[in-house]
Design goal:
Order of helices and strands of chain A: HHHHHHHH
Strand order of the largest sheet of chain B: 6-7-8-3-9-10
Shape of chain A: globular
Oligomer: heterodimer
Largest interface: A-B, 25 and 26 residues
CATH architecture of the domain at 1-74 and 145-153 and 179-235 in chain B: 3-Layer(aba) Sandwich
Radius of gyration of chain A: 24 Å
Distance between the termini of chain B: 35 Å
Largest sheet of chain B: 6 strands, mixed
Largest sheet of chain A: none
Helix content of chain A: over 70%
Helix content of chain B: 25-40%
Structural class of chain B: alpha/beta
Mean pLDDT of chain B: 87
Order of helices and strands of chain B: EEEHEEHEHHHEHEHEEHH
Radius of gyration of chain B: 18 Å
Distance between the termini of chain A: 26 Å
Strand content of chain B: 25-35%
Number of helices of chain B: 9
Chain lengths: 270, 235
């Protein structure tokens, strides 16, 4: 049943996410073209004299970066709107009468959001790369030199990436993953609280709850970071990185179970 | 066997008590009218049985199962509003019902939709509210459920649509199943009911067999309803 729920969650969002991904790719191609023109212009040592084409290229390049950012934010918004509409509007009358339990309903949303965000992030990063690659391809690329440079970078990284550095990077990656998980659950919890607590202006209430929770967590987090800065040293660094990781994981678990409790026991769709 | 059993059931919304220590049992194979004025607790009771609300006190079971995924698989619920997403097509909604409910008879649903002239590729965005309600009724009645919970199925529709809805219910429900119809339009549903339950202020006022009551009282259920609820304040 969980797989079926996940399938319907995916079906409800994939076309919006797909359109946004295509938008990001189109923007990267457009921006790449504009960047290529500008790079070529500078390579030919021509001065930027403000012709219409040059001005349009600059605006296209800026627009492309903006469009890629909008696609990323838009995708996240689509997923949150889906969570709200599927659970706390009239669509909830179907969702909550399906023969599944509340954990399955919530986890299907969470997994679908994470999968879509992963896809969106990959497309947005790839779009950025494509934009830059198209742009710099205007210059004559010495492929042999590039290969040598990449080899040197690899050798350099092998020296840099000692066990110690890997440990630091691993700690930072874990902190990042825990932070993202907590942010998603925090947003879902805020939507749940807003939808269940407010009779009117549920979205506004959800925004209020989100900033309220974020402020409370932020105060605790800042205190932790400050104490680490004061102490300094290697162990302080790990404490500064590990503590938010643990805190975010604990908060994510607590937020999920609070959301489950509210949805399972306090749901009132009217 | 009792299809639905409510024991000492209470439901409170903040300060308002919507249901108060309700005890009710529904046998199988009956069409039961859950009747009462607005605000009497009909929708609350149906939502509790459908698993959309959690009781403040007491318990409710469907075929001996506590409310949860197991009971929801046995219950076919028609809410008093439509729950379709605007982007969804009728075909996708059929697929969803087929995926989640093993007792869903897709062929029957398609047959009923064809009779109504509703295409499988029609999007709900383009269907009128009345047509959406009919699609929802078709989906709900195409299940071979043990208990049908129909919340105001004829509220807000024209008399011709009421006849269509009641005929759909009568011709499609499994005779071994129980149908609970909540309404305050007694005269329209009276002809199809086997049993009735009068609710007022969240309490069970009266319940019984429709024919036996009609014979004993010498009046129709509609007349009895008007007589009983005329005496109550706030009706």
């Amino acid at each position: 049943m969980f797989a079926k729920l996940l399938k319907y969650e995916w079906k409800a969002t994939w076309h919006y996410i797909g359109i946004l991904c295509l938008g990001a790719v189109a923007a990267s191609l457009m921006g790449g073209g504009a960047m290529r023109y500008l790079v070529k212009l500078s390579e030919q040592a021509e001065e930027f004299d403000g012709t219409v084409l040059e001005i349009v290229s600059v605006f296209l390049l800026m627009g492309a970066f903006l469009a890629i950012a909008v696609c990323a934010i838009g995708g996240f918004a689509v997923l949150l709107v889906r969570f709200y509409r599927g659970r706390f509007t009239d669509e909830g009358y179907l969702t909550f009468t399906l023969p599944v339990n509340t954990h399955q309903i919530l986890l299907s949303s969470l997994v679908n959001t994470l999968l879509n965000l992963l896809l969106l992030t990959a497309v947005v990063l790839a779009s950025g790369m494509v934009l830059l690659l198209i742009g710099i391809s205007a210059e004559q690329i010495a492929w042999e030199e590039l290969r040598q440079a990449l080899l040197q970078i690899r050798e350099g990284l092998a020296k840099i990436f000692t066990l110690q550095v890997m440990k630091i990077l691993g700690t930072m990656a874990a902190a990042g993953i825990a932070g993202i998980l907590w942010e998603i659950i925090c947003l879902m919890l805020a939507i749940t609280l807003g939808a269940l607590a407010a009779k009117k202006h549920k979205i506004l209430a959800a925004v209020g709850f989100f900033y309220g929770i974020q402020m409370a967590v932020g105060i605790v987090q800042t205190g932790t970071m400050l104490s680490a800065v004061v102490e300094s040293g290697e162990s302080a660094f790990y404490r500064a990185m590990l503590w938010p990781t643990v805190m975010h994981l604990v908060l994510a678990a607590a937020g999920y179970f609070l959301m489950w409790y509210l949805t399972d026991r306090k749901l009132n769709l009217s | 066997m009792d299809v639905l059993k409510a024991e000492n059931l209470s439901m409170r919304y903040h300060t308002k008590l919507a249901l108060e220590h309700l005890n009710l049992t529904l046998p199988e194979g009956k069409i039961v009218g859950l009747l009462g004025p607005n605000g009497s607790g009909k929708t609350t009771f149906i939502k509790l049985a459908a698993g959309l609300l959690t009781p403040t006190e007491g318990s409710i079971t469907v075929c001996g199962r506590k409310i949860g995924p197991g009971s929801k698989a046995l219950v076919s619920y028609l809410p008093d509003r439509t729950y379709f997403g605007r982007q969804i097509r009728v075909r996708q909604q059929l697929e969803l019902f087929q995926d989640f409910y093993p007792d869903f008879d897709r062929a029957r649903a398609e047959q009923m939709l064809a009779a109504l002239g509703i295409g499988l590729d029609d999007s709900f965005r383009n269907l009128s509210k009345g047509t959406q309600e009919k699609v929802q009724l078709v989906l709900v009645m195409s299940r071979r459920a043990r208990l049908y919970l129909l919340d105001e199925p004829i509220g807000g529709v024209d008399p011709a649509a009421r006849d269509y809805i009641l005929n759909t219910i009568l011709t499609n429900y499994d005779p071994s199943a129980t149908v609970l119809i909540s309404t305050h339009l007694i005269s329209d549903v009276e002809r199809v009911l086997d049993e009735f339950v009068f609710l007022a202020g969240g309490k069970l006022l009266r319940a019984g067999n429709v024919d036996a009551t009609r014979e004993a009282e010498g009046k129709s259920l509609d007349e009895l309803f008007r007589e009983v609820f005329r005496c109550l304040p706030n009706c």
